From TrEMBL:
Pfam families linked to this entry: Exo_endo_phos (PF03372)
Name of the featured protein: Endonuclease/exonuclease/phosphatase domain-containing protein
Boundaries of every Endonuclease/exonuclease/phosphatase domain copy: 13-240
GO molecular function, one term: metal ion binding
The organism of origin for this protein: Glonium stellatum
Any one annotated GO CC term: cytoplasm
Cofactor: Mg(2+); Mn(2+)
BP GO annotations: double-strand break repair
Domain of life, per lineage: Eukaryota
Subcellular localization: Nucleus, PML body
Main location: nucleus
Swiss-Prot/TrEMBL keywords: DNA damage, DNA repair, Hydrolase, Magnesium, Metal-binding, Nuclease, Nucleus
Length: 249
């Protein structure tokens, strides 16, 4: 987490101070929350949706969102999914005027294929709240585990625009893939690269740019590296690339 936070700090420093920043994180553990919450630059510039794991259904990991302190937060809530992994959608409503909000959803959809498939049901549940009358614009982003053909059509079926595709990306292009590059060789060979993570949006908002980030970032601590090698783990801070998207509304 130290290396990941250091990387994020450098990325944020490169962004214009006039732009408000929101960071969506998935698969955080309790120790991550403590470390993030005690990091000076995070405390100075961001509010955290969660300081403990109290609102996670899963005892092992969950989602948190970091919000630029200049933003006016009206409400934070969670939508519990019908899920084999106790997953949910983390909503944040930002006040923009008296009658409507800018609604963000940080999500981690179920990982594997199930019978019947659960990801379509989960996205449909989120869509209901992002398309409601009190929402001026909405963003749905995170690990959507889009690893089956049915996942390619889910955004369109739920009236979302896909930032990657809207900006000219191709569905099956390797340069659009987020996962599978920083994984063990056996996993790479079995599954290959995939565009598991997506940034979707609806309403009065437009994606202006999208960039893959956190490419090749490894842990700094040598003791941690040694332990990871002994446990046959990879030294990257995450097996996913990150996505950085600029929006205009």
């Amino acid at each position: 987490m130290v290396a990941a936070l250091s990387y994020l700090k450098s990325m944020i420093a490169s962004i214009s101070k006039s732009q408000a920043i929101v960071i969506l994180l998935q698969e955080m553990v309790e120790s991550d929350l403590r470390q993030i919450g005690s990091t000076p630059w995070v405390r100075a510039h961001f509010a955290m949706t969660d300081c403990t794991s109290s609102y996670w259904d899963s005892s092992s990991y969950g989602t948190i969102t970091l919000l630029d302190r200049r933003l006016s937060v009206k409400r934070v809530s969670r939508l519990k999914y019908i899920s084999e992994y106790l997953r949910d959608g983390l909503f944040v409503d930002l006040a923009i005027h008296h009658t409507q909000v800018f609604r963000l959803c940080n999500t981690h959809l179920d990982s594997m294929a199930s019978n019947p498939p659960l990801r379509p049901l989960q996205m449909k549940g989120v869509a209901k709240w992002l398309h409601s009358d009190d929402v001026y614009a909405g963003i749905l982003a995170g690990d959507m585990n889009a690893n089956r053909p049915l996942d390619q059509t889910l955004p369109h079926e739920n009236a979302f625009k896909d930032a990657y595709l809207e900006l000219g990306g191709r569905e099956d292009a390797k340069e659009g893939c987020i996962w599978g590059f920083q994984s063990q060789e056996t996993i790479k060979k079995r599954f290959g690269p995939a565009r598991l993570d997506k940034v979707l949006y609806c309403g009065e908002v437009t994606a202006r740019s999208l960039e893959r980030i956190e490419i090749g970032v490894t842990v700094d601590d040598e003791c941690t590296k040694k332990k990871m090698r002994e446990e046959a783990e990879i030294e990257w801070v995450t097996d996913h690339y990150g996505l950085m998207v600029e929006f205009k509304f």
